Amino acid sequence: MSRKIYDSPEAALEGVLFDGMTIMSGGFGLSGNPENLIPAIKDAGVKNLTVISNNCGADGFGLWMLLNNGQIKKMISSYVGENKLFEQLYLSGELELELNPQGTLAERIRAGGAGIPAFYTKTGVGTVVAEGKPVEEFEGELYVRERWLRADLAIVKAWKADPEGNLVYRKTARNFNPVMATAGKVTIVEVEEIVEAGALGADNIHTPGIYVDRIIKGARYDKRIERVTTRPRPEKEAV
């Protein structure tokens, strides 16, 4: 068995978690969430966490579990809507929040993985986003300086992995997962399927295994839909 493959989320997280750490968690809404690793972190009881994620789950699911359990001290996110607990804790001062434009959040994470300490962007100039940050002019336009984001641990959800940790994501479940996989000191990935070495095909790999430290096969996936939108079936025409 590959040295990267672990039998359970608990085994993969052993020796990695500590109070006050920073964790990146993949996902966009409820798509591409590490559904098996998050409950294991909850059960481990680590606290005072800084969590970097697009959002903080939804009521009763995903990162909401850590929030509800009082384990998260600060969120670095780009979307906080439709999570009543998140809203309540932020407004009461119990939760710190660093809100980012979504593209800026993704680029800060990518920069962290690429070893780029800072970069400039036009997004946020003249708004609260730019408060306290250097602003410079380039070719007649103002740009705000943003810093990289890195984490002690990145928890990532992929579709398939091989024993070396090469990853393939499925459709929009890819979202923040590939950039987060590069930006953690330790990257733990949960997948739906572990295939044989070479089965993925070099041209199909989204994340090279060099970024991946530990792999588990998830026991189950709910793959919930936040808002189910349907339309009536068209009535059959009379024959």
| Helix content percent band | 10-25%
Chain-averaged pLDDT: 94
CATH architecture term:
3-Layer(aba) Sandwich
What's the number of domains? 1
Give the SSE string: HEHEHEHEHEEEEEHEE
What this model shows, in words?
The chain has 239 residues and is α/β, with parallel strands linked by helices. The protein has a single domain, classed as Glutaconate Coenzyme A-transferase (3-Layer(aba) Sandwich), CATH 3.40.1080. 19% of the residues lie in helices and 26% in strands. The chain has six helices and eleven strands. The strands form two sheets. Strands 1, 2, 3, 4, 8, 9, 10 and 11 form an eight-stranded mixed beta sheet that branches. Strands 5-7-6 form a three-stranded antiparallel beta sheet. It is globular, with a radius of gyration of 19 Å.
